[in-house]
Amino acid sequence: VIALNDVATAQWPEKKVKALKDWVASGGTLLVGGGAGYSQTAAAFQELLPVEGQNTVMWSNTELLMSYAGSAEQPDPLNVINGKLVRGEVLLADSDIPILASNQYGSGSILYIAFDLGLKPLSNWEGRTAFIQNVLNPYLINANAYNGRDTWWELENSASQFPRLKSPQVGGLLLIFIIYVLIVAPIMYMVLRKLDRREWSW
Fold this sequence. Notes:
alpha/beta, two-stranded antiparallel ribbon, 9 strands, 37% helix, elongated
C-alpha cells in the first residue's frame, strides 16, 4: 500500500507517475486522502481516481466512521470533499457525499478517502487505526493472492535477478584459517590476558 495525502503531484516527473501507475496495475493499492489538499494530491492521477471534487464541506455525521471502525468514540466533524463518483464504487457514503470509494486499475486498486488523513480531529481520534485497518484489510489480503500469484515464488524470482557469486576456493579458505590459528588467535589471546578480558575472545 502507498498512501498520498496533501502532496502536490502535478510537478512529478512523468517517469515517477508512470512507475506508480504500473505498480498499481500490477497489484498494488494506492490510498489517496481528501480534504483541502485533495486537488493537488489528485492532479497526476485524475483519470484513475474514483471521485472528482474540489470544494469542501464540514461533515458532522461522523458516527458513520465510528460504526465502520467499531469505535466507542465518535470523531469531531471533519472537512471533507463534496465530490461525486465518476468511476468505480462507493464503499461508504453520507447521502450524496462519497466518504470512501474504490476504483480497480489493472490488478490493483485506487482508494479514496474524503478527508485529510493527517489532520485533527482524525489524527487524535482513538478509532483512527481501526478505521484505516478496516479500509485496507481486504486489499492487503488480496495482495498476496491476486491472479493466483505466489508471494514466496515472487521473492525467489526477485532474488534470482541478482548475479550469483562464485563460491570461494577451498584452498583459499584453508589458508585464511591457518593464518588465524597461527598468528591472529595467539596475539589476541595475549592482549586479552594482559587486559584480563579473556572472556571477550568468545
